[in-house]
Amino acid sequence: MELLFKQYDYVRRTRGILFSYCEKMTDGEYITEIEQFGRGSIRETHFHVAECYAFWLGEFGMGRSCDWRLETVVDVAAMRSVFADVDQLVIEFLERFALESDLQIEGQFNGQKFTATPIWLFTQTVTHEFHHKGQIATMGRMKGYIPPDLDLIMTDGLADN
Fold first, then answer.
1. What is the pLDDT of residues 6-19, one digit of tens each?
2. Whether this model's pTM surpasses 0.85
3. What is the DSSP string of the chain?
4. In this structure, which of 7, 44, 76, 102 has its CB flanked by the most CB atoms within 10 Å?
């Protein structure tokens, strides 16, 4: 699982670039809904990503819940704080399952019995975040902000670092 710690570090770095991009917007632009997107606003999409980590890694994977509330997240700085909690959750999850990446974890998803491994849970949350990262960049573009390059290669200039 050491490799996953390194992979998550790349995820965190690209998330930081996205947060810096969002900080160029006014708080109103960050929280204002855009009709064309299912999650409504950039803030709601960011929060949904955090909730996904909380559900899959926290609740499903480790049997614990998070108590974040969307209405308390009024700007990007507050969202960064939520993701600091996400970072701690991911580290705890990876440490807990370091030697059991193929362990079968049973739980409920959409009212149905569901079984997943720690490697699946981690992959699900990371790919889910990258899917919504693209949506957030598109929403920002719709508000007149040209998004930065959010590919992993831009995090430090070295793809194999």
1. 999 999 999 999 99
2. yes
3. -HHHHHHHHHHHHHHHHHHHHHTTS-HHHHHS--TTSTT-SHHHHHHHHHHHHIIIIIIIIHS------GGG--SHHHHHHHHHHHHHHHHHHHHHTTT-TT--EEEEETTEEEEE-HHHHHHHHHHHHHHHHHHHHHHHHHTT-PPPP-SGGGTTS-TT-
4. 76
